[in-house]
Amino acid sequence: MLFAKRFIFIQFSLDFISGAFLVVSSWTIFASTGSATITGIYVSFGFLPSLLTNIYIGAIVDRWDAKKMMQISLATMFSAISFTILSFLSETVFLLFIAQMMMQLAGSIFRPSVQVYMTHLYEAGKLKYMFTKSASISILGGVIGAFIASQFLLYSISYIFVMMIFMIIIAFAVSFQLPYHSSDGIRQKINIHQDIKDGFRYAKSKAIFIKLFILLGSGQVITHCTTGFLAAYTYETFTNKSEMYGYLQISLTIGGIVLGFCTTKYLEAFEKAFSKWGFVLLSICLMLCAFCTQFIFVGTSLFMIGMLTTWIRSHYQAIQQINTDRKFNGKMASFRMIINQGSVVIISPLLGLLGTAYGINTVFGFLAIIAIIAYVVNIKLSLLKHV
């Protein structure tokens, strides 16, 4: 458990920085441009580098040391922080687009790396529990980062940058205390492009992977679009105070924390209920955000959205890893991320146009439809009998 605490702390640090960055960048983009379309493009563009490189990242993770890959992700995140600071110093808001790309790329490198690392530390029976716990801790980091950033947003941006730099330095120091993870020497002797082709053949050989990718892709779109458009939604629905945005952001993420701190007994109960009705409940909460303007109802709905999307991510990712041969863990994680991020890249700008034309609340209505479609696909493909 000692090593687990160390890489979970690194996860906490990365999400702390991501949460603070999200508050600063999303609020700045919309406050500076006043455009939901540009906000949608901002969310979409952030995933482009990851989308183009994910296919190779997974193969590299399977062939190389997972610890070194995590350290590369930390270096990439430091670059993102640097571009963010440069954006404010030069008063050029579009440098935040570059920072967003670097931030998402860091996550695309880190997630398959830590998942491969975890599969070598824990047996299959403990993976679901550990994925949920680690997801909860990382979300806690995002909550704390978002909350602190929202409180300093109108007073001193420099304090936020100092905290981000401090956290990345600590995470780097902790990463050097992790043991190295030996890679598969056999896979290293295979040409990387052949390795990728083998990964595609492996994915096609198990029908459950396609089903998991569809559900995880739907959950990813809802997660990132809810987060990405929340600043514009707050600005339009309530007031333009950053404190209100910070509280709503915390409501969204704290649900995942609550889920993560549940015992195994309660997680099993949630699994039975959410497997059948999770996407329906998610759709209802999104519809409440679309049509309700009362803070208490919106905050509660966001809390449930955070809980449900965290469950979708941790539950189905664990199922994917359990059903994956170890030598394909990195590639399968990256294939999933290609679908997840590709969905966000395509849908986010469309939602931005929809929000500009008909109001930001319609974005949440559209996300509710996606949740219902995911529910129908879930039933139609009979995924429940597999999980």
Query: Portion of residues in helices?
Result: over 70%
Give the amount of beta strand, in percent.
under 5%
* Largest β-sheet summary: none
- The CATH class name reads Mainly Alpha
Structural class: mainly alpha
The chain-level mean pLDDT equals 78
Over the alpha carbons, how many angstroms does the gyration radius reach?
20 Å
What is the correct CATH architecture?
Up-down Bundle
Number of domains: 1
Query: Termini distance?
Result: 27 Å
Shape: globular
- Low-confidence region ranges: 383-387
- Strands, total number: 0
CATH topology: Growth Hormone, Chain: A
H-E string:
HHHHHHHHHHHHHHH
The number of helical segments is 15
CATH superfamily: MFS general substrate transporter like domains
